[in-house]
């Protein structure tokens, strides 16, 4: 039997060897080869868009941060100025309240022939002015005679038996006040010096 080559027939053509006629759609293999390049180009474009968006967002956040920082700094500065003004005003208000006290004392000293009674009245009036100045500025007196001993407001100088005084005083109560105390704005400026009863 003669071979196919002897009969003038060559080997069967391969799919790759067949030329694609013009105008026809690409084969499935050719389409698959084109897809990765298109995907890469699309992916690169998408990354660029995301990068631009991220940079814009970062710039916006930076601007917001700088604005917030500036506003915080302004608030801190204004708070410091308010505190300084409050201290200055408090001192000025207290000083202004003390001016009538000084005026009263100077007026008393100008008298040529001061009488005991008139001097007493002048001192009493001056003391009232001083008490009013203290009250306006929340400088309050602590006079705890007969009250229960409070270590937050009082300082005990000595202790005596409760039945040694008349009338008798319960234990841990103030028997006598050697020096009045003062509070300012609910804080102890000076504790009262007291004698306390013991049981």
Task: Quickly list its features.
199 residues, Nucleotide Exchange Factor Grpe, Chain A, domain 2, 2 domains, 3-stranded antiparallel beta sheet, 3-stranded mixed beta sheet, 2 helices, 6 strands, 52% helix, disordered N terminus
**Cα-atom Rg, whole angstroms?**
50 Å
DSSP E strands, number: 6
Assembly annotation: single chain
Outline the biggest β-sheet: 3 strands, antiparallel
Looking at the overall shape, the CATH architecture of the largest domain is Alpha-Beta Complex
Sheet/helix structural class? alpha+beta
Helicity range: 40-55%
Give the CA-CA distance, first to last residue.
Answer: 143 Å
Identify the CATH class of the largest domain.
Answer: Alpha Beta
Uncertain regions spanning at least 5 consecutive residues: 1-8, 15-20
What integer is the average pLDDT?
A: 82
User: Biggest sheet: strands side by side, in what order?
Assistant: 1-4-5
What does this structure look like?
The protein is α+β, with helices and mostly antiparallel strands and 199 residues long. The chain folds into two domains: 29-137, Hemagglutinin Ectodomain, Chain B; 139-199, Nucleotide Exchange Factor Grpe, Chain A, domain 2 (Roll), CATH 2.30.22. It contains two helices and six strands. The strands form two sheets. It has a three-stranded antiparallel β-sheet. Strands 2-6-3 form a three-stranded mixed β-sheet, with no helix packed on it. Helix 1 packs antiparallel against helix 2. Residues 1-8 and 15-20 have low confidence and may be disordered.
């Amino acid at each position: 039997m003669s071979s196919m080559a002897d009969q003038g027939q060559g080997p069967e053509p391969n799919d790759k060897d067949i030329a694609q006629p013009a105008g026809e759609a690409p084969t499935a293999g050719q389409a698959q080869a084109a897809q990765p390049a298109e995907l890469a180009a699309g992916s690169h474009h998408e990354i660029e868009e995301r990068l631009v968006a991220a940079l814009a967002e970062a710039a916006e956040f930076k601007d917001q941060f700088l604005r917030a920082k500036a506003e915080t700094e302004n608030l801190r500065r204004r708070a410091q100025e308010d505190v300084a003004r409050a201290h200055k005003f408090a001192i000025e208000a207290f000083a202004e309240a003390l001016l009538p006290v000084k005026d009263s004392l100077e007026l008393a000293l100008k008298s040529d022939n001061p009488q005991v009674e008139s001097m007493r009245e002048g001192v009493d009036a001056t003391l009232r002015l001083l008490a009013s100045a203290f009250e306006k500025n929340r400088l309050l007196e602590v006079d705890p005679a007969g009250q229960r001993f409070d270590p937050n407001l009082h300082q005990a100088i000595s202790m005596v038996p409760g039945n040694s005084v008349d009338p008798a005083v319960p234990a841990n109560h103030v028997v006598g006040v050697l020096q009045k105390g003062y509070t300012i704005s609910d804080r102890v400026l000076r504790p009262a010096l007291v004698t306390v009863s013991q049981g």
